[in-house]
Each structure stands twice: as structure tokens, then as C-alpha cells.
Amino acid sequence: MTAEPPPRRASIGARRNPASQAAILAAARAVLAEEGYAGFSIDAVSRRAGAGKPTIYRWWKNRADLLMEVYAAEKAGIRAVPSEDLARDLADYTAALWSFWCGTPSGRTFRALLAEAQSDPDALAVLREKFLPDRLQDVRGLFAAAVARGDIPAGEVEARLALYIGFNWFHVLTDQLDIGLASIPAAMRLIAAPAR
Amino acid sequence: MTAEPPPRRASIGARRNPASQAAILAAARAVLAEEGYAGFSIDAVSRRAGAGKPTIYRWWKNRADLLMEVYAAEKAGIRAVPSEDLARDLADYTAALWSFWCGTPSGRTFRALLAEAQSDPDALAVLREKFLPDRLQDVRGLFAAAVARGDIPAGEVEARLALYIGFNWFHVLTDQLDIGLASIPAAMRLIAAPAR
DNA sequence: TCATAACGAAACGGAACGTTTCGTTATGGA
DNA sequence: TCCATAACGAAACGTTCCGTTTCGTTATGA
Questions:
Q1: Whether residues B94 and B178 fall in one domain
Q2: Is residue A101 assigned to a domain?
Q3: Hey, how many other C-beta atoms are within 10 angstroms of the C-beta on A103?
Q4: Is B86 exposed, middle or buried (0-12, 13-18, 19+ CB in 10 A)?
Q5: The pLDDT of residue A76 is above 80
Q6: A–B: how many Cβ contacts below 8 A?
Q7: Dist. CA B31–CA B175, nearest whole Å
Q8: What pLDDT score does B152 carry?
Q9: Are A46 and A105 members of one domain?
């Protein structure tokens, strides 16, 4: 099976061993990819990485902390630069994001993160105040450009952003990324619609 | 504290004891209300209800199954009858739903359910194929009426529905029901916007 | 040279899982 | 009236995971 020979990564002295960090992140990725959130335990990651649990807890506060670093490490260079058409910008960005979620363990990582935040108040706080704002910078940029062009009113950006986020969450949380692909353009047109 | 004297609900013969069922559902409600999803364990519910765990597992397959019955039992008679204005109908329904989620343990139950579905494939399947369709009947009715009036195109109903669901999920999952209240009307106007 | 600190392994106590075993209780068909 | 049937609560089972502690080993860097 997936049984590599024992990795043998002893201490390299009084400092963090990058090989251990990499092995733990890789193991977390692999566990999420193969078992999903159900099988994602610190014990499982530790076993798979051939690392001691104290080594994990030394560098990561909890599961959510590890999940966020896994997600950050996976996150490809998905960028969004505004053109002149908000609806098209959003649709392009969304398509890229969804294929990122489908083509890597990231979709499962993201779902695990949202689930984790439902039982861990600290995780929810970090998600809301750090993780989400960071991830939404580009999308906010698209909306800001549309506001600057006068396409949408500034006061409605939060409502539209909530619609955008929720649309993505609904599809990823119900594991309907493939099925929902076709509805992206229509949804984005509504989110980007000029005020009447 | 909340320590009632031992309830003493022995068997009433070779049939289900309704008192036990009620006690278990009430205990599940209470645990969710006081501890949230983090404290929601079968052991905790069992202890609180003064019921044996086998009694729980005899009648409910798993946690998700119990959660769904709790939610169903809580679900007040929130109804949606279409008027002539889809945006207003959606806004009214959403406001009622959110105050239901805030004023009862239902918001937490719902969050627990979504979280549970991320680790249990069976729970996700039931959520997608039974729970959600049931819950969305009324909202679908609102959209259907708008389609019948010619206000929105029939082909866009799924996209708009996804936007609607996601908007609610985003706010409940991030525990931002109160903060987001003001953005409901704007969001619903976008979801209900006529095709251009 | 040597205090320092990270490493993996192993074990800890505690909690929850889902199941089994048990003695008790009452039903409903024979 | 008798008795097979089945639900009840209590307790305990073995397993898994939690987050932590202890331990001997390894190599740094002052």
C-alpha cells in the first residue's frame, strides 16, 4: 500500500526541522484527500507523517490551525484582475476557484475548515477575522472596481459579497461543484446587476 | 442547577415509550442550546435525558438522524405564500427564518447538521435529497409564482435558489444573522431581479 | 564544551464512539 | 391466565481520538 519505509527524521538540533513540517503538511493533505474530514485526526496525520504528536502540537495550536496552513500551502496563484465587466470577472474567478477545489484536496480542506468552525469558537473567529478577509481580497477588488466605474452602488457591496460567498459555500458544502458549474454565469449576472 | 430528580421511565411494554422519545428530543435541544455542536454527543444527550444509549440507537441511526428530528420538531409554522412581489416575499420569509434561527436552538441545530454532513456521507446524502427539498418547498413556491407571472425566466430558478440558500448559509454558519439583517432586502432584490 | 531545544516513541487520563449484556417492566396473542 | 416478545435504563465493553507528559536521542550555536 502506501507504506513508505520509516522516514527517520530525528532532531536536527535546537531548531525546527523543515522536513518534519513538510511531511506533516503532506500527510494532512493526503489524509484529507483519501479519507475526507471524517478521517482527519491528529493521530492519523501523525502516524502517516511518521511524526510525533508533540511535534504537531508544538507548531500548530489545533486542527483548524493545521487545516488553514494546509489550505494556504495548496492555494494556487488564483488571481482576479478586474476588467470592465463585473459579471464576467466573477464568473471567471469562480470557475477557476471551483476547478482548484475539485482538482486538489483543497475543496475537502475548505469543507473541513467550515465544519471545524462550527464546533470550535476560536476557529470561527479566526475564519471570520483573518482567513476569510484574506481570501476575499481579490473579489473585493473586483467589486471595488465596479463601484469605481459606477456600475453598482457602494452601499450594496456587502450584500452582493454575501451572495457571492454563499453561492460558493452552498455548492462546495453539498458537494455539487460539478453540477452547479452551468449556473455560474446566471448567478454572477444577478450578483453584478446594476441597481435599478 | 438543571438537575431534575431521576425521571424513572422504565419500559411500558413491548412498544416504544413516547415519554422517552420526548425526553431524548428535549435533552438534545437543551444540549445544543447550552453547549452548541461541540457539546452535542450521544453520551451527553443520554445522560441529560436519563435514557440509555441503546434506547437512542434503537430509534435513531446516528447523530445526523437525531439532529434532523430535533430540527423538524422545532420548526415552527413558518409559511410563505406568494404575493405579487418576489423580492418582498423572499425578504419576509428570510426575516422570519432568521428570527426562528435566533430565537430557538434551531440555528445551532442547523449549523450542527451542516457540519455533520461534512464528515458523514450518508448525512450529506439525506441532507441533499430529503431534508433540503422538504425545507425549500415554500421558497420554490415563491419562485414558481414569479415564473408564472413572467417576472423571472424559468431557466434561472436553480441559480437564484442557490444564491438564496447560500446567502442564508453564509450568515448562519458565520454566526452573523444579526449583523446581516440589514442586507436582506438588497440581497433579495438582486435574487428577484427580472431578466434584462 | 555544553546548555538548549526539537525530534520520535510511548504512554498517560479523559471523553465519546457504537455495541453488548443484564435484570426489569409491561404488552398482547395463545 | 400464561408467556413469548420487546422496549426500558444501567453498566460495561473495546476502540479511537483528544491534548499532554515523559523519555532518550540528536545536533545546534554561543
A1: yes
A2: yes
A3: 10
A4: buried
A5: no
A6: 120
A7: 18
A8: 98
A9: no
Can you list the residues of chain B whose pLDDT is less than 50? 1-6
Residues in CB range of B114: below 8 A, 6 or more apart: A114, A115, A118, A173, B127, B169, B173
Q: Same domain, yes or no, for A96 and A187?
A: yes
Structurally, how many domains does chain A consist of? 2
In the prediction, which pLDDT does B75 show? 85
The whole-angstrom distance between A58's CA and the closest CA on chain B is 24
Question: Which among B111, B112, B187 has CB closest to A163?
Answer: B187
* Domain stop point among B27, B59, B91: B59
Residue-wise pLDDT tens digits, A152-192: 999 999 999 999 999 999 999 999 999 999 999 999 999 99
Residues B87 and B55 in one domain: no
User: For residues A91 and A187, what is the distance between their CA atoms, to the nearest angstrom?
Assistant: 9
Q: What is the pLDDT of residue A7?
A: 60
| pLDDT exceeds cutoff 60 at A4 | no
| H helix runs in chain B, sequence order | 18-35, 42-49, 53-59, 63-74, 86-103, 106-119, 121-126, 132-149, 157-173, 177-180, 184-191
> In this structure, what DSSP letter does residue A6 have?
P
pLDDT at B1: 40
CA of A67 to C1' of C6 (A): 22
Residues A183, A86 within the same domain: yes
Whether residue B190 and residue A187 make contact (CB cut-off 8 A), yes or no, is: no
Range of the domain at B94: 79-191
